[in-house]
Amino acid sequence: MLASETPDLLITDLSLTEGTGMALLDDVARHHPEMRCIVLSMHTGAAFVAEALQRGARGYVTKGAGAEELVLGIRAVMRNEQYLSRDLRQSRRAATDPIESLTPRERQTLQLLVRGLVPKAAAAELGISEKTLYAHRASLLEKLGARNERDLARIALERGLL
Asked: CATH 1.10.10.10 occupies which residues in the chain?
């Protein structure tokens, strides 16, 4: 169809019956560089999004985002802006801000440890095993780049988590 028609905008999925959306993006970039493309897909992984953008997509909207997100994406891409649906923007923010990546249980663990509870007491208050609490603690240390509970307390205080 693209051989005979040249629309201003192409909205494609990544999963197609004949070929892939990624191959289609390559073809559009090669033969119709002026055409703007938006991916509308169930795939939400950062690798899918990054690859689609690298191959020429100007927008990426997940199928779970809703019709209004697609309309916003179309408008943005037609203004020659890049657009990611809200759910993708939120997950990108979480990836860049370690506080955003904490699970609710990790936040609870952080608050209890920073209050000075010993691991056994914190685990009891959360209704989990001490081993599970230590797993949450290790995850907190890694995600927040802390060396010990004193670092966790400093980070929690600086970020207003207390």
From this structure: 98-158
Amino acid 43: pLDDT: 87
User: Residues 9-58: pLDDT tens digits?
Assistant: 999 999 888 888 999 999 999 999 999 999 999 888 888 888 999 999 99
Q: Distance between CA atoms of 52 and 137, rounded to whole angstroms?
A: 36
Residue given tokens 């929690």 in the structure block: 156
Fold of the domain spanning 9-96: Rossmann fold (3.40.50)
To which residue do tokens 């010990």 refer? 148
Nearest-angstrom CA–CA distance, 70 and 61: 6
Whole-number Å distance between alpha carbons of 58 and 139? 35
Q: Where in the chain are all domains bearing CATH 3.40.50.2300?
A: 9-96
Q: What is the CATH number of domain 98-158?
A: 1.10.10.10
